[in-house]
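Narrative summary of target 7.
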Amino acid sequence: MVANTPALPEELRAGEGTEVPRTWDPPLVEPRPVPLDDFPPSEHSTERMSVLLADHTPRHGTAWLAVEYAAKSGRRLHLQIVAPPVPPSDDAAGAESGRRFPLVVFVQGSAWGEQMLGQELPALAHFAARGYVVAVVEYRPSDVAPFPAQVRDTRSAVRFLRTHADRYRIDPSRVALWGDSSGAHTALLTALTEGDPEYSDEPDGEPLHVSCVVDYYGPTDIARMNEEPSVQDHVSPTSPEGMLIGGHDVLARPDLVAPTVLAGHLHPDRDVPPVLMVHGSRDRLVPFGQSVLLHDALVDAGRSVELYQLRGADHGGPPFWQEPVLDLVDGFLRLHLPPDEGLRSSQRREVDA
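Modeled conformation, tokenized:
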């Protein structure tokens, strides 16, 4: 339907591009900035019009897509960032003065190859509504840059997010890592190699201060993947594990495999953040025993770890994104992330008053 617009008086009609004297003045209201509460409601109505009351409760957050955080090996690397809903008052105040949220950096699994960065983005946006900024990391695939490039890229991404915390409503003192499959392997190694310059492209960069790590069905010892039933080759040079170490037979190059084994990075003098592990009992790609290996190594080292087996679950999929499992992840994060200093300060002011 085309809206009816007032016709110009005959005397003002002219050829295209011709200026005419302004002798016809329709009623105009000069624009000026006005807060919503002071803005007058429209007085127009029509006989068949219906009226609904506006609900200003925010239901969805904000997304920043394809945010470039680095350029390496001739590739631009990106983040997909989702933030929770904020009250209109915070939104009007701007990111710098509004509430800050803990950061959860999610490393999307891909057998260390090219990632589908949107694969879990809808589920993560749903999770972000619980009060987190979630950022999905793009790393260099192993055929472009073998191990430890993926760990270095994740560390660069966290540093970028900490540097730009104001822009994305991040509380840089509250950072957690989360990954699935090869992304979990990468997330765990990022935490376990804190302070080791071999795993950083910014040797003089600030520490990440990761508070905890969530591991969804990640491999932990790539030389032992085929000790259990699997539908995938984990040994040959062209296997995901072989490509991770530069296109070599996994069993023929223990020297290249050793740095990828998570338990090898457990040292008495190195802090290890608490770890939550969730793994399916019928995982056809990464055997459940891989999580048991790391769990037992962490227990033997006196570190904090929780392991949950999802009975009947395969390698990822809907079982890992059901509300009870997300409640588990949410509870783990809230337990181990530092408290919200902004809320604590607000509560102290209320007590003092």
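Strands lie at 62-72, 75-83, 101-107, 133-137, 170-180, 210-216, 275-280, 305-310.
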